[in-house]
Amino acid sequence: MKTSTAGASSSAPVAHNAVPPPPKTSGTRASRIAPHSHIKGLGLNAEGFAATDGAGFIGQTAAREACGVVVDLVKSRKFSGRALLLVGPPGTGKTALALAISQELGAKVPFCPMVGSEVYSTEVKKTEVLAEAFRRAIGLRIKETKVVYEGEVTELTPTESENPLSGYGKTVSHVVVGLKTVRGTKQLRLDPSIYEAILKEKIQVGDVIYIEANSGAVKRVGRSDAYASSYDLESETYVPLPKGDVHKQKELVQDVTLGDLDAANARPQGGQDIMSVMGSLVKSGRTEITEKLRREVNRVVKGYVDQGVAEVVPGVVFIDEVHMLDIECFTYLNALLESPMAPTVVLATNRGNALVRGTTDIYAPHGIPVDLLDRCLIVRTTPYEKDAIAKVVQLRANVEGLKLGDGVLDRLAQKGHESSLRYALQLLTPASILATIAGRKQIELEDIDEMGELFLDAKTSADIISQHQDSEAS
Fold first, then answer.
1. 3-state SS assignment for residue 327
2. What pTM does this model have?
3. Are 132 and 248 in contact (CB under 8 A)?
């Protein structure tokens, strides 16, 4: 890696994540808005009481306060051997509560969601799927000191040259990267392979990055806070301008999970001959990991922890629709809860008394065996009222950058109250597309009415089919 000192190149700030994007910002970074992007925590005050809306959460105050107590138990290491069971109708925030618990435990805490039906795989055993989920939810924070180049990207200029191996086209010979810190700037002349890593990380001017001097590995830390926008909620991470020199020794923290270590060690290291290559292509992509390998990984991890190089970070396993598990999985869950390296387990269901799968005569609350229910703290979620639905819809509209016209919020809240909250939220984005086609900058009542005709809710569609069947029978 060759370096040369130079002044930072001037670059106009690029507007970030504007929603809707301004017409002249071609360098904006696209970000995916997930269903729970607005959830930032449980929204509790210092005394543990929940406000009506806080940290992106609307309503469910009793459930949030109960989950806050569970977070305190986990932080004080007094929740081992137990699980949290969230019970309530669909669309009442059970998944959001599990995600909020994970975020309350820490920003880098692993969160591993799954549904009960995932265990029924033809490739691996049911218990193996559960074991993999538990291992993915246990993080390992590794600390090491490395020589790096760190700073805000002020210049990113690839230099092309004629391809010596072919008379056609050009190839990147090197890339010039300008980095800026509080103490100065430096211009780096880097290898083309590092430019490929920069493209893979989707790095652009204004991002804060570091490049390892020995390996050339590139890591994007975040967006410089000089480019921060005025949005209350967004997915981008803004970081301050790095202090010190561009070339420095830095303590790097790498987060991996035990599931990552299991998969890396279980992957066969084949040779370069044709039979090994063909075997790797034909072989199934999912490998069942033996208990012997997991014990060996645990032994190595324990050695790192004893040396002070690494730290174990228990995360959160969230199993939705837990009533879909069968009696074998429930029995294995009991064993996993008692293991010394177990994450926080959050279960969710919307069933009342139900038959335990895998049995013919055992009925239990929520379709869960009593011996596992005895280990659970049960928290109830309640259906949203019309006012709370209106607040949720308005929050999602703000997150997605949508403007609502007069009466639109009340109409969506009414639809959500009559059918479901999810149905009301699903009408938002299609209605915004319809408004854009019509040349409007905000959603009007006519857009909502047309969406209601194009996309039916479950109750309406079931009534139509029932009426059609009755007319055929008569």
1. helix
2. 0.72
3. no
Q: Record the tokens describing residue 402, joined without a space.
A: 């949508």
| 276 vs 377, more confident | 377
Structure tokens at 184: 């100065």
pLDDT of the residue at 5? 43
Rounded to whole angstroms, the Cα distance separating 424 from 457 reads 9
Ramachandran category for residue 24: left, alpha or beta (phi over 0 → left; psi -120 to 50 → alpha): alpha
Residue of 83, 110, 89, 88 lying closest to 99 (CA atoms): 110
DSSP 183-206: S-EEEEEE-HHHHHHHHHTT--TT
User: Which letter does DSSP use for residue 323 in this model?
Assistant: G
Contacts of 179 (CB under 8 A, 6+ apart): 149, 150, 151, 152, 153, 154, 185, 186, 187, 188, 209, 246
Long-range contacts (CB closer than 8 Å, 24 or more residues apart) made by 103-107 = 103/39, 103/40, 103/41, 104/41, 104/42, 104/68, 104/71, 105/71, 105/74, 105/75, 105/315, 105/316, 105/344, 106/313
DSSP secondary structure, 132-166, as one string = HHHHHTEEEEEEEEEEEEEEEEEEEEEEEEE-TT-
